[in-house]
Sequence to fold (303 residues):
Amino acid sequence: MLTPLSPLQIKERLSLLFLEKGQLDVQDGAFVLMDVNGVRTHIPVGGVACLMLEPGSRVSHAAVVLASRAGTLLVWVGEAGVRLYSAGQPGGARSDKLLYQASLALDSTARLNVVRKMFFLRFGENPPEKRSIEQLRGLEGVRVRKTYEYMAVKYRVKWTGRRYDPKTWGAGDLANRCLSSATACLYGVTEAAVLASGYAPAIGFLHTGKPRSFVYDIADIFKFQTVVPVAFAIAARGSSDPEGEVRRGCRDMFRKTRLLKKIIPTIEEILSAGGLPVPNAPEDAVKPAFEDPEGMGDDGHRG
Fold:
């Protein structure tokens, strides 16, 4: 009998790995990536927050099961990681966390408080009083545009605005290509943390209507501290492999800033600003037939 897996906490893991052109499978209880020549590369799945699967990747049923048990998010992305198509949940969300998140999003006062806290964490100052969420979104947009312009001047990069058209990816300017690759890395890591902490990626506060609205809310708080400087620095060098350099640069920046130690505490801090208590289970609800042992992983990981 194999020893039961105990998922490591997100803060103890590597951020992400990109895999392409290979079969992801399980051998002897461990992840391996096999290429067309039969060369096997072992993947430390239990110590990685998420695996980014690029075109040319195939995944076996056993690999998906192991990823779920180990609490590693599988993310299917486009070439160079610039499109995010789908993701496999690393474990399971907790109903109390989901109900708490939904209650905050449905209460207008609580939602505004959460958005104001996001604004404070992102820009280092409280937003003006008596402003609606729509007005705060407008203020945020102005600051974001100014920050991009500042970064472009700092790194001496030609800049005409943030644009992303997947249909003309290769023809896009280098700075925007680097930024798209960088934010894809950040979104993958952030979604892994959101799921591991037991919340729903789709229930956002500033962003709404998208499958990853809450992921965008949280990722934006860290974007200009982490991946945006990396993208502009690489665009300034005029790299022949910008996407690859961006991915490696983001990986190093995540490690340098200890990002995985910050995301889940930041999520809890933001939601607590809503001012609502975590709802209790109804008294007439059916209790679990048996209790799972306490694991090492985060709240949303299955035991």
Summary: The CA atoms of residues 30 and 42 lie 7 Å apart. The radius of gyration is 20 Å. The chain has nine helices and eight strands. The first strand starts at residue 14 and ends at 19.
